[in-house]
Amino acid sequence: MKSKGNVSELKEKVVFINRVTKVVKGGRNFRFSALVVVGDGKGYVGVGTGKSAEVPDAIRKGIEDAKKNLIYVPIIKDTIPHEVAGTFGRSKVLIMPARKGTGIIAGGPVRSVIELVGIKNVTAKSLGSNNPKNVVEATFNALLSLRTLDKIAELRDKSVAQIIS
Q1: CB of 139 within 8 A of CB of 106?
Q2: pLDDT per residue over 85-102, tens digit each?
Q3: DSSP string covering 82-93, please?
């Protein structure tokens, strides 16, 4: 369900910047890779990476990449519709809906994705590897697998009332 939200009102957040060194005949070459998350706070979020010899260029490339990978996340009453788990590599992320007033209870990389989606009340737990790239991708995969009752009814060719009963 890829779609592009209003690109002008996207906020971006740099999650992680990695310095990579390549040893060559003349010395060391330093390059940077940036992991960036963009979102509009109304359900659209994207993740991207950028690599360059300069940090600002890497961030800019990461933002462009993230804008190409926007997805829509269903939000119901400032939280998610149901509990969900996402995995990527050896990282696993559990995201659970929470009551109003709970806030965002989540670790660093997971928090940055959830904040930019626009979810206000949620609890998340990161399990396994804590590599920022893998944790962000696991969070992204978890949010991709969210379904609303309307969507499930549509997939089963039934009405919402038939599914509830």
Answers
A1: no
A2: 999 999 999 999 999 999
A3: S-EEEEETTEEE
DSSP state of 107: -
- Output DSSP code: residue 23: E
For residues 31 and 9, the answer to whether their CB atoms sit within 8 Å is no
Q: What beta strand segments (E) does 26-161 contain? A: 27-39, 44-52, 71-72, 84-88, 91-97, 104-105, 122-128
> Between 150 and 142, where is the model more confident?
142
For residue 33, what are the β-bridge partners? 18, 51
Q: Domains in the chain, start-ordered, CATH in brackets? A: 7-71 (3.30.160.20), 74-153 (3.30.230.10)
What are phi and psi for residue 81, nearest 5 degrees? -65, -30
Q: How many CB atoms lie within 10 A of CB 26?
A: 6
Number of H helices, E strands in the chain: 5, 8
Give which of 80, 91, 77 is closest to 125, Cα–Cα: 91
Closest alpha carbon to 11 in 90, 66, 79, 92: 66
Cα torsion through 26, 32, 33, 35, rounded to 10: 170
Please say if the pLDDT value at position 8 is more than 70: no
